[in-house]
From TrEMBL:
Record-annotated RNA polymerase sigma factor 70 region 4 type domain positions: 103-153
Family: Belongs to the sigma-70 factor family. ECF subfamily.
Organism: Marivirga tractuosa (strain ATCC 23168 / DSM 4126 / NBRC 15989 / NCIMB 1408 / VKM B-1430 / H-43) (Microscilla tractuosa)
Listed GO MF terms: DNA binding; sigma factor activity
The protein, known as: RNA polymerase, sigma-24 subunit, ECF subfamily
Length: 161
């Protein structure tokens, strides 16, 4: 009985409901999905026998389903837009960091040879003042002074560029 009634509703109203949903949604695929969902829910419902006027009932169900699909699409578009914005921001930050790194390397390259060598060991190799002094056979104080001089020159270079 239930199956036969739903089949009859489907034959009688499916095309009209799709046209109605299309008018709301402007998408044939979404309109068909909305109507399909209405009939799927109708099949799962126990209230089929309580429906006195099937067409107005199905129109109302289709309208609610169409709005639900549209709301879901809008939410998905907002999520996608937020994702694209965060991707663009991340790309911008990476480019900014790359530019800063290039500026830092250029600033280090502009240093006098002794300062430059010490700063390369510090920045590129991550050595401590003690390790640099041992490696270059300089006093720790000399390395500290050269790093201080280098930092001042780098700051000036970066503020000028």
């Amino acid at each position: 009985m239930k199956q036969k009634l739903i089949q009859q509703f489907y034959q009688d109203y499916q095309e009209k409901l799709i046209k109605f949903a299309f008018a709301l949604m402007r998408s044939q695929e979404n309109a068909e999905e909305a109507v399909h969902n209405v009939f799927r829910r109708l099949w799962a419902s126990d209230k089929l026998s309580e429906i006195e006027k099937p067409y107005p009932y199905l129109i109302q169900c289709t309208k609610f389903e169409a709005y639900a699909i549209l709301a879901q699409e809008k939410k998905q578009k907002e999520v996608n837009l937020q994702f694209l914005k965060s991707e663009a921001e991340e790309k911008r930050l990476v480019e900014t960091n790359e530019n800063r790194l290039i500026q830092l390397r250029t600033a280090i390259d502009s240093l006098p040879p002794k300062c430059k060598k010490i700063m390369r060991l510090k920045v590129d190799d991550g050595l401590t003042h003690r390790e640099i002094s041992d490696y270059l056979k300089l006093s720790k104080k000399t390395v500290e002074n050269q790093v201080t001089i280098a930092i001042k020159k780098i700051k000036k270079y970066l503020s000028d560029h």
